[in-house]
Amino acid sequence: MKEKYFLSFVFFILILLSLFLDKGNADDFTLYSGNASTQTNAKDKTGAPDILNEDNFTIESGASISVEGSGAKGINAGNNTTITNSGSISTSVNAWAAIETYGIYAIGNNTIIKNLGTIKADSWIGMTSDSSKTSGIYSFGTNISITNSGTIIISSKDWANPGSYTTAYGVYVIGNNNFIDNSGLINVSVLQIYRRVEGSGLYVEGDDNTINNLGTIIVNISEDSFSPSPIGSSMGYGINIYGDSNMISNLGNVTVSTTADSTYAEIYGINIEGNGNTITKRLKSPH
Q1: Residue 97's closest CA among 134, 131, 135, 133?
Q2: 124: how many CB neighbours lie within 10 A of its CB?
Q3: Per-residue pLDDT tens digits for 164-192
Q4: Which of 253, 130, 112 is nearest to 178 (CA)?
Q5: Positive or negative, the Cα torsion across 263, 267, 268, 272?
Q6: Nearest 5°: CA angle at 15, between 9 and 19?
Q7: Which residues of 45-75 are buried (b: 16+ CB within 10 A; e: fewer)?
Q8: pLDDT in tens, 135-157
């Protein structure tokens, strides 16, 4: 009789264990990428079981990640995701049509992104009326925390027909109640050839966000020597904020420059548009 009860107990424990393991596999992935590996495509760059836009991921990457092609994303993630990059991420696109390229791309809420390494995003778009988007880190959602203590380098060269528009941002965040902190280097370089372009070190759109800069932000808008007059003004911003009740602290260095004709280019160190926004010399914690 005792043996019967013992076997029943063991069977019950095995059932509980299998349920626990199944739940872990379905909902919570921890993906590691070692320093020695060099990975070159979106599927296996962190050892993911299938795709990288599932929720509830913890991604620890110390590797060299390189992704090329239209729509390139170094790391792609969703809700409740923690991403730490201590290696290097490089994305690049050369195309004659609409393009998007992102070092880290996260759509969802409760996301934590930490860059301790290097992120490079490079784009070149040819003669087309389509637009392009290039960002080192892009995140859309609420309760997002982004900290950069590493290096983010953005380079965009765009030559297209009138009517198109190109944007290049170091960190690009859309949403409310988010925290963005830069203590590293963000360098954004945009070449203007016959079209309107916009470059920003930090671009935040939304309400009740906290933005801190303790590091260095460099933005340059340049014009090709043989370029005709572009259609519309090109814009350069160190920090660009759209929304209400945001807290902005700048204790670092912001440098914005242009070699383009002043008739066709405007530059701003910090630009804030909205109501109830505050600039302070004290660092702010997340809301």
Answers
A1: 131
A2: 18
A3: 678 899 999 999 999 999 999 999 998 87
A4: 112
A5: positive
A6: 145
A7: bbbbeeebbbbbbbbbbbbbbbbeeebbbbb
A8: 999 999 999 999 999 999 999 87
171, 205 in Cβ contact below 8 A? Answer: no
Q: What is the pTM of this model?
A: 0.79
Contact 66, 41 (CB under 8 A): no
Distance CA(173)–CA(131), nearest Å, equals 19
3-state secondary structure the chain: CHHHHHHHHHHHHHHHHHHHHHHHHHHCEEEEECCCCEECCCCCCCCCCCCCCCCCEEEEECCEEEEECCCEEEEEECCCCEEEECCEEEEEEEECCCEEEEEEEEECCCCEEEECCEEEEEEEECCCCCCEEEEEEEEECCCCEEEECCEEEEEEEEECCCCCEEEEEEEEEECCCCEEEECCEEEEEEEEECCEEEEEEEEEECCCCEEEECCEEEEEEEECCCCCCCCCCEEEEEEEEECCCCEEEECCEEEEEECCCCCCEEEEEEEEECCCCEEECCCCCCC
* pLDDT classification of 284: cutoffs 50, 70, 90: low
Instruction: Please indicate whether residue 194 or residue 31 has the higher confidence score (pLDDT).
Output: 194
Token match 């690009």: residue? 172
Ranking 74-83, 122-131, 200-209 by mean pLDDT, the lowest is: 122-131
* CB neighbour list of residue 45: distance below 8 Å, 6 or more residues apart: 33, 39, 52, 61, 63, 65, 67, 74, 75
Q: How far is residue 21 from each of residues 15, 29, 31, measured CA to CA in Å?
A: 10, 11, 16
